[in-house]
Design brief:
By secondary structure, this protein is α/β, with parallel strands linked by helices. It contains 15 helices and twelve strands. The strands form three sheets. It has a five-stranded parallel beta sheet with strand order 2-1-3-4-5, with helices on both faces. The longest helix has 32 residues. The radius of gyration is 28 Å and the shape is extended.
């Protein structure tokens, strides 16, 4: 089992691991005999155990030094176990809570689970059963910490702060992201290839109320028409040759989150019709299926074409165009934000030095001059590859 931050994997039962700090457990019970028995048994397993006679004492102890797991009786004088559970979940949501209750009070345990307890155990407490429950609680704590860390890494990589630039053109982009991010408005990103439209889509998603939902990306230019339709809407088993099992499309996968359609200007007229229908109704049907599936997605699309020109020349549906561009962000080419080049170069140098385990290098003024003088037809992506 992977260890969660702040503690090592559990030792085999009966063995104490002294090399690294062990998980800390707080036992809360008004009966001294119960506290003592749990403290002795858990101590033999190598856990660090603290005791509290009341819920008030437990809160005071947690304020001094949080623990990994709290084992608390439900029925106690003064503040009860349920009130303690609520206080822990408000003040220390990362702490796992296991409640203890008597045989006649199983309903209290059920209510505690609904309130946020991770598990419960019936008195008199079985040592083996308790150890299994603690292992499960610690595993849940480790998984939660890992999830928080992964989300933070994604935020760091794709959040607003990863957009580099201080030129007026980029400041306008930042203002537009701030204005639209925390709404459900559809966003159309228009700009040349390599300008960072995908990063802006990430910033819009991770600064929105849907940030904890999925962000699903589709490159419309990378798939032929038949595959793109299946990729977007899914298909049922047997819908076409090779459809050996049911497939959930990107609309379903993005339910509750954001769907990012890159190079939207490349889709065919037939796919445009089906996409328009899905956006108008909020419903889709898998290929070969009859079931209507309701989806809740926020759409962000991107293109390197001028869609208004595409509409005027009959290559893109006007009604779909208006569905897509509730809010348009024009992403500037690198040539229009040339003063950002030194900042971008510095950012990329630091990034690649870190990835390759090297001390941060400095770019000479001669090289900077050459980079500033280049036309950069491939925009920021070309600059990144040069660095």
């Amino acid at each position: 089992r992977r260890a969660g931050p702040g503690h090592a994997p559990l030792a085999p039962r009966g063995k104490v691991m002294s090399e690294t700090p062990q998980p800390r457990i707080l036992v809360v019970d008004d009966e001294r005999a119960v506290r003592s028995a749990l403290t002795v048994n858990l101590g033999k397993q190598g856990f660090q155990v603290e005791e509290a006679q009341t819920a008030e004492e437990a809160i005071a102890a947690l304020s001094q030094r949080p623990v990994d797991v709290v084992i608390s009786d439900v029925a106690m004088p003064g503040m009860g176990g349920m009130a303690l559970l609520e206080e822990i979940k408000k003040g220390w949501p990362e702490i796992r809570v296991v409640v203890m209750t008597g045989y006649g009070s199983v309903s209290d345990a059920v209510q505690a689970m609904k309130t946020g307890a991770d598990d419960y155990i019936i008195k008199p407490v079985s040592k083996d059963a308790l150890l299994v429950i603690i292992e499960r609680a610690l595993a849940g704590k480790a998984l939660l910490a890992e999830l928080v860390q992964l989300r933070q890494e994604v935020q760091d990589k794709y959040g607003f702060e990863n957009l580099i630039g201080t030129t007026p053109a980029m400041l306008e982009v930042y203002e537009q992201i701030e204005a639209v991010a925390d709404t459900n408005a559809r966003v159309l990103l228009q700009g040349p290839t390599g300008t960072g439209k995908e990063l802006i889509a990430h910033a819009v998603h991770y600064r929105s109320s849907r940030r904890n939902g999925p962000l699903v990306k589709v490159s419309c230019a990378a798939l032929p028409e038949a595959l793109l339709e299946s990729e977007l809407f899914g298909h049922e088993k047997g819908a076409f040759t090779g459809a050996v099992k049911q497939h959930r499309g990107k609309f379903e996968q993005a339910n509750g989150g954001t769907l990012f359609l890159d190079e939207i200007g490349e889709i065919s007229a037939a796919t445009q019709v089906k996409l328009l229908r899905a956006l108008e109704s909020g419903e889709i049907q898998r290929l070969g299926g009859t079931e209507t599936i309701r989806v809740d997605i926020r759409l962000v699309s991107a293109t390197n074409r001028n869609l208004r020109t595409e509409v005027n020349e009959g290559r893109f549906r006007e009604d779909l165009y208006y569905r897509l561009n509730t809010f348009t962000i024009a992403v500037p080419p690198l040539a229009a934000r040339r003063d950002d080049i030194p900042l971008l170069v510095d950012h990329f140098v630091r990034m690649f030095c870190k990835e390759n385990g090297r001390d941060t290098l400095k770019v000479s003024s001669e090289v900077q001059d050459q980079l500033m003088a280049h036309h950069w037809p491939g925009n920021v992506r070309e600059l990144l590859h040069v660095v």
